[in-house]
Every structure is written in structure tokens, then in C-alpha cells.
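How a chain folds remains the central question behind the approach discussed here. For one protein, we set the task of working out the C-alpha cells from the amino acid sequence alone. The sequence in question and its C-alpha cells are set out directly beneath this paragraph.

_____
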Amino acid sequence: MAGKFFKLKFFRETFLGNFLTFSISAFESNLLWLFPFFFFSFIFRKTLLFEALFGVITYSFIFSTIVLGGLAFAIVRIISDFIYLNQPRKIYENYSGAVFLVFFVSLASGYIFFHDYHYREIAMFLFMGLSVLQVNSLFVGAIEKTYLTLFSVGASFSLVALFFNFFKNNINEKMGIMAFAMSISLSVFILNVVITKYLKSTTQIRFDFLKLIGKNPELLLIGYLYYLSYWIDNIVLWIQRGIEVAPGIVIYPDYDFPLFITSVSFIPSIVLINLNIETIFLEKYLAFFSSIKSNKPLNQIEENLRKLKLSIKHILFKVILVGITTLILNFSIAPFFKEWGILNENSILAFTVSSLGHFFNAVFVFLMIMCLYFGYYAEALKGNLIAFVVNFVVSWFFGKTILGIGFLVSFLSGSVFLLHKFDLKDLIFKIYSSQPHGLEKVKRISWKP
């Protein structure tokens, strides 16, 4: 993963190294966001942006994240466990199982979402491609062959560029969807070849991530609630003010498009979280638990805990700092979006409010990850439930007046809750009290004097 590179002196202490590290992490963990962003950025200059095309891609993008969202947390945990245990064979077996499951789930879901659309088969193909691409992006990081990930992205966008340059202004709605679907499929194919080449040692299929969900069902609920919290305001606006751009496809472009642009603008904050967790935090985290496992003196354990807390505060401070920088840039560039004809007056408001919402979403994501690292599943679940309910209620009653207000208030509320509940003060006591006491069960003996 990109965090491995960040440990090297060149990548840590030079501007070029930092830039490459951020780029690597961005491509590894945000493939699903970057594909539609570059696609629309390219065709916006080449041809008219068909509303139906935008609607199909929006549906595919949003619902594919929701469909896989519940599994993503468990899959990442399983990958991490098997990397730690040095068991690449089981990683590939679970990759096969995840692709198998996601393929059939997305096939059924795609049929439901695009049942009335006149290019249903192509839309379903795109939906399945985006869903499987998410699985690829989760597993490809275990290989640490980042240049191959970059190659898959470059090849896919080269295909799109050639397609649009060849047909130029003769592209219609169907051809646009096919171009995007084929670019996604090419990337899925390349990443699948990469994963198979470096991990495959068996044809067996495993579903260890489902067993993990069976033991910790909170992971499934946390994943689904987070992505529902993220997208529920879009769905509410589709119901209240949506425009049917194609049979069965209802969207609200004045909010959908600026929200997506804002999401991409905050990728640096998410990348920063990933890099710092993989390096600064993980080093202190492992040192703390290693000192407990090795029965080190209490004062050394407390010192490691102090360093661990400082690393968490340090990362949170950097996330806030980068988030504020992104806010300033977004607020500064918003008038130019209107001047260039990218966003209208209504969309500018949505872009501004959702920028504030994404600032708190970045804080929320970091705190949620910390809760998961320390086993505070109940707190993470409650935080996501609060975010979902608040976003739904506020968007339903006030979302038509102030676009994005539900998103802002929900993740602000969720962040405040997690910040209040995430407390490591009694962590040492909790860890020791949760350990087995070594008392073995014995058969009851009848004794008589």
C-alpha cells in the first residue's frame, strides 16, 4: 500500500516523494471516484453532457457503493488479518468469493434499478463493472504493485479518449454509456489479471468475510449505514424534486453534480487519513499492543499509550488543517464554476454547503476508523445511525430550501457524537479485563467424607 512508500526517506522528506505517495494512495483507494470524474471532465469538452447518460452513471455509481458498502468493512478486515498472518492464498480465495458474491448481487440489483430503462443490458453491465471494480480496488492493495494499478487506469482512459476522438460529435446516449462501461471493464480485467498473477495458488473459493460478519454483524450495519448516510439526501431530493431523464431514471442534477465535485475535492483528506493510519498511527498502535502482549512494565505500557494518543491527535489536527485548506479553495473557485457555465446559482449553493459537509465527513471517517481499530463497534454503529437519521430528517424537511444542509448537519452531529464517545482513558483496564483468566473448566467430582 502507499503507506509502505511513505516510510522510505525519499518519499517522506521530499516534495516529489510526498506528491507520488499521495498520488499512489489516491489511485489505490479512490478508483471508483476518479473514473466518473475524469470521464465527465473529458466528455464535457468533447460533446454535450447527456442528462440520461449522467443519470445512468449516477445510479450505477451511488447504488454500487451502497450494495458493496456493507461488505467493504469486513473485506478490508479479512485482508488485513491475512496480510498480518502472511497467508496470500486465503486472500485470493476470499477475493474469488467476494467477486462471485458481488457479481450475482449486482446482477440482481442492476435488473431492479434499470428494469424500465431502454438500454437496460448496457446499464446493468456498467453497474456490475463498477461493483466488481470496488472489490478489485480493495484487494489490489495487498499486492503492492502500484504501477500496475496506474497502468489499468491509464489504459482505460486511453480507450475512452480514442473512442471520443474517433466518433467526435456523433456520440449518442447509448454510445456514451458503452464507452464508460467498456473503460470500467478494461480496468476490471487488468486488475483481475494482476491479482490472479500475484496471489493465485488455488481455485478454491472462501467466504471468510461472511464468517466475520456472522461474528460481528455490526460491521455489516456500519458499512450500510455509512453509505446510506452519505447518499440519502440525494435519494430524498430525487423523490421531492427529481427529473426523469430516462424511463426509470430520476435524478436532480443541480445537487448530484456539485456533490460529486465536492466529494472528489476532499479526496486529499481521505488520502491523508489512509497514509497516516498506515504509518504514524499503526507504528504506535502495534507498539502499544506489543508491550501488553510481552508483559512489559506498566509504566512502559502507559508511555506507549500516551504516544498512541498523541499520534491520534496529530492525525486529527492534520485532517482538520487539510480540510480547512480544501474549504478555502472550494469557496474561492465556486464563482468561477458559475462563470464557466459548469454550475448554476442553485448548484453553487449546494457546492458550498456540501463542502462544509465533506469537511465534517472527513473528521467523521477518521473517528469511525479509530473506533473500529479499538473495537468500539457499538459507538461506531450509533454514530452512523445518528448521521443517517439526521440526514434523512433534515433533508426531507429543509433540503429543498438549502441544498446539502442534511449532509452538513448529519456528519457534524455524527462527528460530535464519536468525538464524545471515543475515550481511551481506561483502555489498559478494558484490555486486561477482557482477557481470559486462565481458569479451566473441569468435570464436577462428587466427594464424600
Notes: Residues 254-433 form one domain. Residues 298-339 form the longest helix (42 residues).
